[in-house]
Specification:
Strand content: under 5%
Number of strands: 0
Order of helices and strands: HHHHH
Largest sheet: none
Structural class: mainly alpha
Distance between the termini: 26 Å
Helix content: over 70%
Shape: globular
Number of helices: 5
Length: 128
């Protein structure tokens, strides 16, 4: 695939990923409120799971994954969907509010559950 085509798939995936992030974040805000950044947390964990699954499927070679999916889904969609920079700023905001316990829970939970989700996604992808 040419670089130009890959870029088009990245742009399309990015538009869809950003839209999904907006919708999931809004849903979480309405559902859970503002006490804890659940939207970003859920987006990051589900993004880890999806990327892990994608890596597992591609790594095992059991599915013929179209070449456009790597840049379109992996870089475009998930790159726009996951929100690590927002995660970092929200952690700083919690610390500025002196919510050290919530900040630690957010960082620890995001890293631990994110790595676990990526591992589960990889295992699931290998089973398909």
């Amino acid at each position: 695939m040419t670089e130009g085509r890959s870029l088009i798939w990245v742009m399309l995936g990015g538009a869809l990923g950003a839209s999904a992030r907006y919708l999931v974040g809004g849903w979480a805000l309405r559902r859970f409120g503002v006490t804890f950044p659940w939207g970003t947390f859920l987006i990051n964990i589900s993004g880890c799971l999806l990327l892990g699954f994608f890596a597992g499927v591609r790594g095992e070679g059991r599915w013929a994954v179209p070449t456009f999916l790597t840049p379109g889904f992996g870089i475009g969609f998930l790159g726009a969907y996951t929100t690590f920079s927002t995660f970092a700023v929200e952690t700083v905001n919690l610390l500025e509010l002196r919510s050290v316990v919530l900040a630690a829970a957010y960082v620890g939970g995001s890293v631990a559950v994110g790595v676990l989700a990526a591992g589960v996604g990889t295992l699931l992808g290998r089973q398909v």
